[in-house]
Amino acid sequence: MRSFAKRIITETAVSSGLDAGAVMDRPKKETVLLPEKRIQLDYLDEKFERKFKLMARTQSEDFPDTHRVIRSRLFTTDLIVRADVKANDEAWLETFVNTFLVKLPYKVAGPENDLVIVQAVRAVRSGFGTRMAEVFKKRSNALHITFKGMICKNVQVPLITDVNVKDGAQYKTVGG
Description:
By secondary structure, this protein is an alpha+beta fold. It has helices spanning 2-15, 90-103, and strands at 23-25, 38-43, 47-59, 67-87, 107-109, 115-126, 139-158. The protein has a single domain (2-158), classed as Phage tail protein-like (STM4215-like). A hairpin with a 5-residue loop joins strand 5 and strand 6 (115-126). It is elongated. The protein starts with a helix and ends in an 18-residue tail after the last strand. 13% of the residues are buried.
């Protein structure tokens, strides 16, 4: 789910006006070589919860006349990604974060073609509020983005194609 989350955040950042190379995992050390305007990703613990549910019944691609595929959800997953948007320009940071939030998709198809719900749930701002003369402005807005997905399993089940009733079997009819 981490690579999927990074791909969605990168696509949204590129469509909002940031370079794809400026979206990165959090480096161990801050250096001067990092881009001034960037998004640093930090992945929090992923939570799994066992929630069984039948999702779909479809024909088997291999044996369409004799088998059916039953898709069932086994687990739901929640991954929270902290996307730390950093920039020296306060006005750019404010407009970029707003544009990023507007363009962030709500429902997308996941890696296994399952539904993934993407929500920004929290923003933590830092570096704002001082009116003193600053030599190196460091502004950031950390967005906590939740990716809610599922882990599914496909099972091929044979269909009943022939029924033989034994001779002499007695059946009762309803109402008689």
